[in-house]
Amino acid sequence: MADLERNYVIPLRKGFLKVPIYKRTKRAISEVRKFIIRHMKVEEVKICANLNHFLWAKGCTNPPTRIKIKTRKEGTYALVELQDYDFPKKKEEVKETKIEKALNDKDVEGKKEEKLLKNEPEKKENLAPGPEKKEELKTKQIEERLKKEKIVNKSQKRMIKHEKQNKSFIKTSH
Known about the structure:
Oligomer: single chain
Strand content: 15-25%
Radius of gyration: 33 Å
Strand order of the largest sheet: 1-3-4-2
CATH architecture of the largest domain: Roll
């Protein structure tokens, strides 16, 4: 798929010394682009993340004076990466693998759902508490949460008492 792959050492110092100090790394990146366009004869240059981080590592005022890179020409554009790193995989390949994984997961989930559907009627009877049980569960959950946190202000104590009184009032009124 790759038409051409080459290694280069790009001198950057002459390029970035011609601009103000606060624009040096930006100019170094444009020098990399110009060099690759000239030598690889492409229209577009894509700089990979590792190379970008390497150029910006010392900030905008101190880019490296020369860099060793490898480039790969793919159609009308060229990928540029540091010599020690591999090129990133194409997004299409990654998407396909994600789709395949999702399909495999759906098959497994489908089998699990079938098993659950067979056992569901028995579980529904046990799991469906009445409205009174729901209220009791909520109060127990609130109390457990407060015990775990062990932080209770006076206002929180009042609120707890108030909630309990309201619930007992509601139960007696029905």
